[in-house]
Design goal:
Bound molecules: adenosine-5'-triphosphate, (4-amino-2-methylpyrimidin-5-yl)methyl dihydrogen phosphate
CATH architecture: 3-Layer(aba) Sandwich
Helix content: 25-40%
Protein name: Hydroxymethylpyrimidine/phosphomethylpyrimidine kinase
CATH superfamily: Ribokinase
Low-confidence stretches: none
Keywords: ATP-binding, Kinase, Nucleotide-binding, Thiamine biosynthesis, Transferase
Structural class: alpha/beta
Pfam families: Phos_pyr_kin
EC number: 2.7.1.49, 2.7.4.7
Shape: globular
Radius of gyration: 17 Å
Mean pLDDT: 96
Order of helices and strands: EHEEHEHEHEHHEEEHHHE
Number of helices: 9
Catalytic activity: 4-amino-5-hydroxymethyl-2-methylpyrimidine + ATP = 4-amino-2-methyl-5-(phosphooxymethyl)pyrimidine + ADP + H(+); 4-amino-2-methyl-5-(phosphooxymethyl)pyrimidine + ATP = 4-amino-2-methyl-5-(diphosphooxymethyl)pyrimidine + ADP
Strand order of the largest sheet: 3-2-1-4-5-6-7-8-9-10
Amino acid sequence: MDVVMTIAGADSGGGAGIQADLKTFQELKVFGTTVITALTAQNTLGVQGIFPTSPDFVLQQLTSVFSDFHVKAVKTGMLFSAEIIEVIANYLQQKDVQLVIDPVMIAKGGESLLQKEAVDALKNTLLPIATVLTPNIPEAEVISGIKIENEDHMTKAAHTMLQYGVQCVVMKGGHSKELNTATDKVYLADGTSFSMISKRIHTKHTHGTGCTFSAAITSFLARGLSLKEAMIEAKKFVQLAIENPLNIGHGHGPTNHFAYQQRKGQYEVIVDES
Ligand SMILES: Nc1ncnc2c1ncn2[C@@H]1O[C@H](COP(=O)(O)OP(=O)(O)OP(=O)(O)O)[C@@H](O)[C@H]1O
Ligand SMILES: Cc1ncc(COP(=O)(O)O)c(N)n1
């Protein structure tokens, strides 16, 4: 059984953060462990409260898990503060793991999940040791310092982020203005890139899509898929999770983590290498 880890915030509503990650890990048949950076009192309507973990206790959780398990791949989500990021980066740089970073900054309801001064710590300490970075467009703008209004800007921003040392940047298209498609553009450190294109689903039930996508990438990397295969399979997982809603809650409902297994992974992602 391949062991993976999520380092993220807990979502009491069950749709994002640690809870979305563990559900994804379970469905993808990897063993999930957790390091909790913050508790959030949250539901599909928004985040009502945040209770951060102390950096010392983040370290204690990392030490407990790594001293007992052989963790193959790690993902990070809500990291909250520069102090927490520094503890995690210092610890993980001594470990031989594939690291997927979902640079969670703002919840769907608009609440901040990362302090402003923490962005520099993320760029300077975590990106140099990361395998994959999965920003949405607003997050890519903050990390790269480039306003993204067209494809050229996106490429420039991706190359700026690759310069921090991460091996692959996936620009997620959930927030883009495309009417019929949801396109994620993948940029690799060797200068190549490709797009993953799926049908855009018109739904408000997209709480935790980013968490679910990055947890799926982490699971497939731990299972030994190549970077490209892991990315395409993760896109299928999140597509099926959005396409088959559970209709839970009164706001932005969670996605359906059961769907990939129920539909036997049946979804054709279009891969464009041009
Ligand atoms: N309406 C949609 N239809 C199809 N795919 C979508 C839709 N919205 C998002 N996705 C896909 O979900 C994945 C996550 O992208 P998204 O841009 O939503 O991330 P995010 O904004 O970081 O999510 P979160 O707000 O949960 O952190 C991507 O693969 C994206 O293409
Ligand atoms: C603990 C935690 N982590 C991540 C998200 C982002 O998810 P979303 O943007 O869908 O609200 C969240 N809301 N809560």
